[in-house]
Design brief:
- One of its GO terms (molecular function) is ATP binding.
- InterPro entries: AAA+_ATPase (IPR003593), ABC_transporter-like_ATP-bd (IPR003439), ABC_transporter-like_CS (IPR017871), ABC_transporter_ATP-bind (IPR050166), P-loop_NTPase (IPR027417).
- Residues 4-234 form the ABC transporter domain.
- Keywords: ATP-binding, Nucleotide-binding, Transport.
- This protein has 255 residues and is an alpha/beta fold.
- It folds into two domains: 33-57 and 69-76 and 153-255, Rossmann fold (3-Layer(aba) Sandwich), CATH 3.40.50.300; 87-151.
- The protein is built from eight helices and ten strands.
- The strands form two sheets. Strands 6-7-8-3-9-10 form a six-stranded mixed sheet, sandwiched between helices. A four-stranded antiparallel sheet has the order 2-1-4-5, covered by helices on one side.
- β9 and β10 form a beta hairpin.
């Protein structure tokens, strides 16, 4: 069974005038897939992710998670946003524990889980620091640990590395792939960065400008582990850049 099955999905925001963000989206995401959503700014990537996670309602169509219609948030679906938005008054460990706290997990167990997931993201030893004592990349890692601590089956990530510097970003991409390869969670990842998309994905889904539709899908059949700058990845990157350029030109012409 697919992790997500999306059929005829549309979304209109009831603003004045209404904004049609998504239209006729059909998408099937298999268990363990690493899918990247790519597309021009405002094409509805975040909206699509929010609908998959149950944070937003759809206007029409069908969205199934493990065969069941999505209705509200689900603890098996973990979300990571661009900004880790840690609570500044809580230590790193207590930020990571928060989802477990909501579930009523006892303190000692929460502590142990926080330590384990902080180690997984390379933050062992930072448990007692506060968010302001971390770099941007470290805060992002802590945010990922917080999501992983709830042991979701699926990770939905909305430009999670958008706010960190280039080298940190490459490191975070590597770490994410290592995590994904060790546990094979399904990942749906939004980015603007075509290089990031081809490096990470099994499939890149290119969305058209608003209203977002599936414009084209690119399978990324490059064997793993992949190397940045690999010629096959560069060729795919260039092909996707060109497709993205064409749809952006089209959108400009229609304005
Ligand atoms: N809560 C809302 N109310 C009204 N319109 C909204 C709302 N959220 C998003 N939109 C509109 O829906 C469209 C899609 O927005 P969305 O944030 O999904 O785009 P995106 O592809 O994630 O863009 P970006 O790449 O800039 O993050 C935009 O036109 C946006 O203005
Ligand atoms: Mg967005």
């Amino acid at each position: 069974m697919a992790t997500f099955e999306v059929r005829g999905l549309g979304k209109e925001f009831p603003t004045d005038p209404p904004v049609r963000a998504l239209d006729g989206i059909d998408l099937s995401i298999g268990e363990g897939d690493f899918v990247v959503l790519l597309g021009p700014s405002g094409c509805g990537k975040s909206t699509l992710l929010d609908i998959l996670s149950g944070l937003q309602d759809k206007t029409e169509g069908e969205v199934l998670f493990e065969g069941v219609p999505v209705a509200g948030t689900n603890s098996r679906i973990g979300v990571v946003f661009q900004d880790a938005s840690l609570y500044p008054w809580r230590t790193v460990a207590r930020n990571v524990e928060i989802g477990l706290e909501f579930r009523g997990v006892p303190r000692a167990e929460r502590r142990a889980a926080a330590a384990e997931y902080l180690t997984q993201v390379g933050l062992a030893g930072f448990e007692r620091k506060y968010p302001h004592q971390l770099s941007g990349g470290m805060r992002q890692r802590a945010g990922i640990a917080r999501t992983l601590a709830t042991e979701p089956a699926v990770l939905l990530m909305d430009e999670p590395f958008g706010a960190v510097d280039h080298l940190t970003r490459i490191q975070l991409q590597r770490d994410l792939l290592a995590l994904w390869e060790s546990r094979r969670r399904t990942v749906v990842f939004v980015t603007h960065d075509v290089g990031e998309a081809v490096y990470l994905a099994d499939r890149v889904i290119l969305l058209s400008p608003r209203p977002g539709r599936v414009h084209r899908e690119f399978p990324i059949d490059v064997p793993r582990p992949r190397r940045k700058g690999d010629i096959e990845l560069l060729a795919l990157e260039s092909e996707i850049y060109q497709a993205l350029g064409r749809i952006e030109e089209q959108a400009d012409a229609e304005l």
